[in-house]
Automatic annotation (TrEMBL):
The keyword Oxidoreductase applies. InterPro entries: FAD/NAD-bd_sf, Flavin-dep_Halogenase_NPB, Flavin_halogenase, Trp_halogen. This is Tryptophan halogenase family protein. It is an enzyme of class 1 (oxidoreductase). It comes from Gilvimarinus japonicus. Keywords: Oxidoreductase. The keyword Oxidoreductase applies. GO terms for molecular function: oxidoreductase activity. Its EC number is 1.14.19.-.
Amino acid sequence: MNRMIDVIVIVGGGSAGWLTAGYVAREHRERIARGDLRVVLCESPNIPAIGVGEGTWPTMRATLARLGISETSLITRCHASFKQGSRFSGWHHASAPGHDYYHPFAFAPGGADGALASYGALTDQWSDFSRLFGAQQSICEAQRAPKQITHAEFDGALNYGYHLDVTAFAQLLSEHCQAELGVEHVLADVQEVLRDETGAIAALRLPGDERLSGDLFVDCTGFKALLLGDALKVPFRSVAQVLFNDAALTTHVNYPSADSEIASCTHASATTHGWIWDIGLSSRRGVGHVFSSRYTDVAQVAGTLSAYLGVDEASAEFRHISFSPGCRERVWQDNCVAIGLSAGFVEPLEASALVMIELSAMELAEGLPRHSSQLPVVAKRFNTAFAYRWDRVVDFLKLHYALSKRDDSEYWRDNRAATSVPESLQQLLTLWRYRAPQSNDFPMAREVFQSLSYQYVLSGLGEAPLLGEQVSSALDERAQRALAQNKQTINHLMSQLPGNRELIHKIHRFGLSTI
């Protein structure tokens, strides 16, 4: 039966549920004010949040500004600090643990066409590409902040995202969405998903036989996928044959003192059987070891993580998280769309989980159908876009493993094997064997990873293109200008930018300007 779409029911809270509620309510605030649209979020009071990753991309700044949440509130309430990219240690070779490379957030000027990357390869400076043509690596190494207290909210000298406490973040979102955006909140466990004669979702049965009816349902129930998976039976597409990791041990680490410096980037350290993330919040560090249960066990990983932390294994407290890497074959079925872990999850590398939530919530809000007759068209477009994005996430994460030269375990040898590399990534690597990645290699609007991100990983892992040519005078002139400008920029920023801890203290005391 055709009908107007007037009630949006989001099932599940956390970052996924509340970001989705916020985007939809903010985009359609006039309809909510008129009373012809309701956004209802129903979440269980008994399910704890899963905080696999606590890093965001710079996109979160625009998201917060769009929702009307101040940066000062995020910093002070969510134990947040500034993230300027990722630092990778030990990924190149097991015998070279001191070999680091960076994937910074700041784009090198003019880097999208691959010309500066080509210059680095032609002049045997490929491995220093991110340092030579961008200031952010040097700023991260000095543990400086990307902005000053005089910068306005969401503004800065360099591009940045955040490290944050996801539980506190969800609470901040919840309060804001209810108080400022008109989102209705229902605390209840879903007893049953009720479907109509067409197979679409009609309502949710809550305790006491109460019914929560809706026109469009958003599944934000995490790995359980209560609506899209359990009720609508949309199959799960595993990528375990490509990305092997399916578990993590996590913990929190206190700083030695309240004045301890805060790292400016996520630190990802490769180990024999996986890798360790180390994230600096303002109040603590979040640390975890990602691994594959096919190649090791919890006891061995616990020993590795304890050694990394320098603690006695017997006294260490680790939380064990299991997950299945992959995504649903369709994230939109009938009148139900999945966002967050219910749509898919691969692993925490490069912190893609939150940005996929942002993209999904944004596109749902912007393309929200008004009538049920539009659902098949909107669903098809949404599914096509996100199937592409999930494939690109898998490709980019696999790139880190496929190009590694580590040979110290079966885990790494199998990760490097051509049989575990998707054909789409193999095709790109064939192109990049003789040229640097370019922006036109990635045609989708709102690409998850840009060409420069691939350049950083390829250069960091020593995979230089075979150009077979000389540096032209035009390229040399362009590169020399960029090199000189970058040196000036680094010197200027080093003299101006405070340390992360210093800036966080000032924000807690004074706040940031909204102008």
